[in-house]
Amino acid sequence: MLSDFRYALRQLSKSPGFTAIVVLTLALGIGANTAIFNLVNTTFLRALPYPDPDSLVHLTESAKKGTDTMPVSYPNFLDWQQQQDVFSGLAVFHGAESKLKIRSGTELVAVQNVSAEFFDVLGVRVVRGRSLQASDDLPGSERVAWITFDAWQRLFGGDPNLVGQTLSLDGRNLTIAGILPSDFRFHRRSDVFTAIGPFAREFLLDMRGSHSNEHAVARLKPGVSIETARVRMEAIALRLAAAYPDSNKGIGVAVTPLREELAGSARNQLVLLLGAVGLVLLIACVNVANMLLARSFSREREMAIRISLGASRWQVLRQLLVESLVLALAGGAAGALIGCWGYDLAKQLVPYQVQQVSSGGDYDLRTLLFIVAVTLVTGLAFGFAPAWQLSNLRPVGALKQTRRDIHTVFGRIRLSDLLVVAQVALALVLTIGAGLLIRSLDRLLQVNPGFEAARVLSLEVTAPPSEQFIRDPHLFTRHFESVLAPVQALPGVEAAAVVTALPFTYNTSFNAIYREDRPVPAVGEFPFVSMHTVSPDYFRVMGIPLVRGRVFDGTEPAYVVPDGLQLTPQNLGRIFKNVTITAVISRKMADRFWPGENPVGKRFRLGWPELGLPWAEIIGVVGNTVQSGLDKGEQGEFYVTLRQWPIPTYMHLVVRSRLEPTALVGAVRGALATVLHDEPIRDVQVLSERIDDSTAGRRFNRDLFAIFAITALMLAAIGLYGVLAFNVGRRTREIGIRVALGANRYDVVHNVVVRGLALVLPGVAIGLGCALGLGRVLQSQLFEVDAADPSTFLTSALLMLLTALAACLIPARRATRVNPVEALRAE
Predict the structure, then answer these.
(1) Is the pTM of this model over 0.85?
(2) C-alpha to C-alpha distance for 109 and 151, rounded to whole angstroms
């Protein structure tokens, strides 16, 4: 066997050009497959960085069985803890952003408020200090915090004496109880972890009807299946619905494997791409097989002599397969390097939550085994047919240069012809897939978001600490009005406003409502509508058109806190007692709740009646907007003014510029510094870029498929050209005789082109049939485009025919230059 390898290396070194082309072709195919497989590996196959990760589950609640999930009610979670018997640990986490005071200034950090069992559920061991205890998670307990290793290094310089020190988080003092290990990663961005119990009342989490931002994670007991957990948790949900019908009627529990929760949405996309790169590799193998077949004809005499001198057919077959494996190994080594680069490019397809817990794209044993397996299979795939053909030749016929064809009911067909048919079919499948994705993205980009994103700069502005809202609810209105004043005065600023739920920031807030003149809906049947708190100029900044009535003008009366009322998080509704605020609604909300009516002047109630929230009187109707993605469509929404509905949370500042928005960034930052001082400003982005970012995944899919399709077309064209060029070379004498007998240039070109198209048309027919099957898989990635779109299929088929025609013309022109005298003399 070693001698076979040495002989293979000598043979391939004699044809460096051929060897380089084959290795490069294989490297591209194997590299693309390696990159996408590594993506699948890190997303679905590689274990999450926790002990026994398959026993971890994610829990949310659902308004009705089978509907979309929603965050967990904290009181419901506490009841879950008491009543469940299927989890060895159950914990809740609540994410937020807070302002952390450090020596160099103020940093905006990601905080996770978690319950007592959180670290135990995930199997985290604190490296410095102590772990989270049940006593830390009680109302009134001392407020303590745990710092991630990265935050310890980044924010505190790795201070070895940090444990026990006090930090200021949103104006609250917390004692640092411990440092988390460097290899701990949570699927949500996190810098600081705190016990949730001491903050529950302050965050209004103790209201059973509140579903703000809490999610639960649990570890299944040994031997308990996820189906059993679902049944038991649904039973608990039914008991809670009976005990608290006002808040829990119709509320269910969704139990999902943690990995499925993190990466489930990407499965179809990654499987589709893995299939696409598999087709590219298959086309590359077919192309290389054709090149080897063409090369094999020049080696027929060599193999015939070896067989005549006593070499067995197995020895010839083995030698030729070794040469193919040497080429495959070289292509696999180069493909592994290309795969590293390709993974870095493709990992943007991985959901953000998975990126948070992923250890990166380093090759592990599974990926290395994949590379080896693909390399070996590839080497056998493209090498077997040429090797089998050469090892089974008849020495006498080969020495006489007798043609070897496959005889079928359709006549004589060479193996190379069949490979061209396969190449054309596979290339057409990828071309149609790319065409469908291109059409889909084009349709998506034509969606009108309902606002004018050009020349609008957006950025996030933090709010004062939430506990100050209790002391002075009007503080938030004054704070954001003071933020707007210096920005509006800047040269080049046309208008500025603030909003709580800016489109394409994925921070949409929903509120239950009901009409004044209709019966109060039953619990669990309240309609939810997207809600925005805005300053008066918001519609002007965003270019949202007014349809009916008017919008806010800044004269709306602010609410009044009753004299003597001592506000607490539990009685905030008292300040809205007997109050009516003004609201602007979207056209879609008007059509949903007041179909065929003029809604201006009508009233609706915010929230459940027992919450005591105000009535809202409609003063105007504006156009619909898209909030969460161009493919998500418009949704009903309403707007309330900042003066009447201040909310203790960060807001987005939007600025319409007369200039290029990015040119205003420095001036806006400077203006805000006069008001906010050292407060952090983040998420600075032109609004049109946010829309572009929302389509990045679809753009990436389209670009990859387009690259794959172009590569496949080129390989198919090269394969067709190679076969026709070889055939023209073998038919030199025949063509010479035809020309000598009076055939003109047109006849010669027509003959060659017809023979080429005779290979292409069956491939096109097979490719169209296969593409119909692909369409069913691709449909989930398409927007307003049918997977069997006739125009895409027709355009792709025509493109394939034009590419094939171009590949046919070069050998055809070569055939027209055959000199009859020289052709006959050569024979």
Answers:
(1) no
(2) 9
